């Protein structure tokens, strides 16, 4: 399988700080990669550098064999969809209107939506359980519902790669799990890179974990292998272990 | 009223207002006088009053209102800021400075060069305000308004300087002063021909960005993510709305708040999507200024009430209401 | 390149605008219509035009005057103006509705007014505010020629010159006091202004002119105190209680800042009506007489020969 996203030795500098200090990672088709790390570790910066929203000073990034900073935004939008962490909508668009914005990369500026576009929008609304809310103004919804609507926008974009920054931060545990299940279903053929702060959720839902601390990758691999007690202790300051049993991956935290 | 009838209804209202406006003026003329004038009949002076005095004025009010409303609408979309408006952001006073300098230097064909001079300074002002307010990709609402305030204080001071220098020549000074107060007195078809391309071309071009401005409502990062070239949109919208502002300022001085009030009303009527609400804004803006000018003319026997004064009387309380509502929304989010 | 289209389009729109504006003004701006040989429907705009036209032609040839003609504070022709019924403001439509054949336009009106009237075939004469006695003579001659009243104009000039010469003769051998005009605007006339000429004729020395200040120049309170003239002329309108009520300003004579100036101490702050100070027509002869009395109160009896 070819890689959807490759980062090699990426460095991002803000002021005198190296916010990302030589980061390399890959996201392949069919896998969900969870990006873990304490606040300020550089997770959001990594996602933005991957999509050429934040400029890097050195290193290489490629999305579908090309450097995203040299791609036309429309072409990039067909290859990768992005959900930022803070997303405040400034006008009273309905949920459906917001989701249909995901189709910009596929519809000409002056054209109407095709049947294929409508189908993609309907599928996204269905996948995230938004059919009943479709005609509501997005700003009238709860923070969690807004997040789901914006994720549906990413789904409608039909890009092979999903890049999501803390999609579950405003959700309760049950909602968070079902949202990640929807992402899993969507990633049947594509891949996803997701920044998550919830250890247990990440360990349970991701194929691979990349742990970031102070701009450097400190561990990576399947959850049970990457999240050793030593990593948990040094990166997250918790004592615990991650084990695999017949029910899946389980995180046990002590103290 | 059904959504589909809104725009035709507004166009009809505009047509009625423009026709009614032709009936108002210091010379008491009847509807049949007006009709005869359009049929090239009746006394020549009445024909002149209708076709060469009142008609240009009505057309200028409509074009100016359209241009200002669209400039404000596009800026509100671009900055995701309900308070953006050419006069709030200082673009209008920048245009005034450019125009005042051009008028003062008294170039032979100055009325033809005034729009260009106004455009250059307006664009420089817009770019400066934007640079002062932007931190990275994020433009904060309050710093945008503050930067606009600071820059327009500077450009207004420079305009006043030119004016006070000009006042040494009392006659030139008085002409400049009257122009700075804004208004549509003594305008002719020449002004209409100057404003027409400058109102229509950029207005139509803004439609190109309608969908990009829709996506910007989700924030600049999400707009980028769905394929919008945010930098290009920003530059294009600033250029086009500066030109719209400069064009109206050159022909009628500053008419404040049209660009602030009208877009809100248009979005209320036609929804947030820019393609539809741009069209509504254009018609509503034209309607507002035609009505304001008609009222100011109807009252002109008793006081010299400029249309800009009327739009400010409507606009200022509206501005306060928007600030209030935005603050309530922010508090609800906090 | 792709992103530059808004600039290119803006340039195009500006070009289009300039050319369509140019074409329309070229096409619809005929040269100024020829003056009618004997205008019979004259409209005067501005108080200067009112004063000239009422002196040069009979009221039967005038259809409308400026509203200022009726204001005794600024008009020297309140009586004569009663012979003409209509009043207009500086507005193309109002002027056109009187169906004039000749309009006297004040120099301070925008170009739009004049070109507007030309478009309708109405001839105009621009009436500037003269800055010297010679300028007034020229104005009278020019307007008189346009109104087909050359002889009346010459008589007007002769009478004005006679009256001024009389005043000059009476003050020739008297001491010449120093004078400043204290205007509320903060501006005061210096050399090469009409006021300088009038003060000279009235037997005074205009301080600002002697200091080499040209034209209408800013004059601060501080400078005024340091110059300390013998006589301060003020606008009577500002001196009277009505203005003080409206503007909340103290008149010069009561202003404590000026309490120690020579003019205030010696009671030589003289209010003169705005209609004398503002006029730029033959009525300056009356201004000279007023000023002469103000400068030489003991030598010229009040209400003397006029």
Give the helix/strand layout.
The complex is a heterotrimer of chains A (255), B (334) and C (306).
Chain A: E1 3-14, E2 17-28, E3 32-36, H1 43-50, E4 58-63, H2 73-79, E5 80-83, H3 95-100, H4 115-127, H5 143-156, E6 161-165, H6 173-186, E7 191-195, H7 199-205, E8 208-213, E9 216-221, H8 223-226, H9 229-236, E10 239-245, E11 248-254
Parallel strand pairs in A: 3-7, 3-8, 5-6, 6-7
Antiparallel strand pairs in A: 1-2, 1-4, 8-9, 10-11
Helix pairs in contact in A: 4-5
Chain B: H1 3-21, H2 31-38, H3 44-79, H4 91-104, H5 110-133, E1 134-135, E2 138-139, H6 141-166, H7 170-180, H8 189-206, H9 210-216, H10 220-225, H11 230-252, H12 258-270, H13 274-298, H14 307-333
Antiparallel strand pairs in B: 1-2
Chain C: H1 5-28, E1 42-44, H2 47-56, E2 62-66, H3 78-81, E3 86-88, H4 92-96, E4 102-106, H5 111-119, E5 123-127, H6 133-146, H7 150-171, E6 178-182, E7 187-189, H8 194-201, E8 205-206, H9 207-210, E9 216-218, H10 221-227, E10 231-235, H11 236-239, H12 241-247, H13 262-265, E11 269-272, H14 274-278, H15 284-295
Parallel strand pairs in C: 1-2, 1-4, 2-3, 4-5, 6-8, 6-10, 10-11
Antiparallel strand pairs in C: 7-9
Question: How would you explain this protein's 3D organization?
Answer:
The complex is a heterotrimer of chains A (255), B (334) and C (306). By secondary structure, chain A is an alpha/beta fold. Helices cover 32% and strands 29% of the residues of chain A. Chain A contains nine helices and eleven strands. Chain A has helices at 43-50, 73-79, 95-100, 115-127, 143-156, 173-186, 199-205, 223-226, 229-236, and strands at residues 3-14, 17-28, 32-36, 58-63, 80-83, 161-165, 191-195, 208-213, 216-221, 239-245, 248-254. In chain A, the strands form three sheets. A six-stranded mixed beta sheet of chain A has the order 5-6-7-3-8-9, sandwiched between helices. Chain A has a three-stranded antiparallel beta sheet with strand order 2-1-4, covered by helices on one side. In chain A, strand 8 and strand 9 form a beta hairpin. Chain A is globular and about 55 Å long. The mean pLDDT of chain A is 91. Chain B has 334 residues and is mainly α. Helix content of chain B is 77%, strand content 1%. Chain B has 14 helices and two strands, in the order H-H-H-H-H-E-E-H-H-H-H-H-H-H-H-H. Chain B has helices at 3-21, 31-38, 44-79, 91-104, 110-133, 141-166, 170-180, 189-206, 210-216, 220-225, 230-252, 258-270, 274-298, 307-333, and strands spanning 134-135, 138-139. In chain B, helix 3 runs antiparallel to helix 11 (230-252) and helix 5 (110-133) packs antiparallel against helix 6. The model of chain B has no long low-confidence stretch (mean pLDDT 85). By secondary structure, chain C is α/β, with parallel strands linked by helices. Chain C is built from 15 helices and eleven strands. In chain C, helix 6 packs antiparallel against helix 7 and helix 7 runs parallel beside helix 15 (284-295). The N and C termini of chain C lie far apart (80 Å). Chains in contact: A-B, B-C. At the B-C interface, helix 3, helix 5, helix 7, helix 8 and helix 11 of B face helix 1, helix 4 and helix 5 of C.
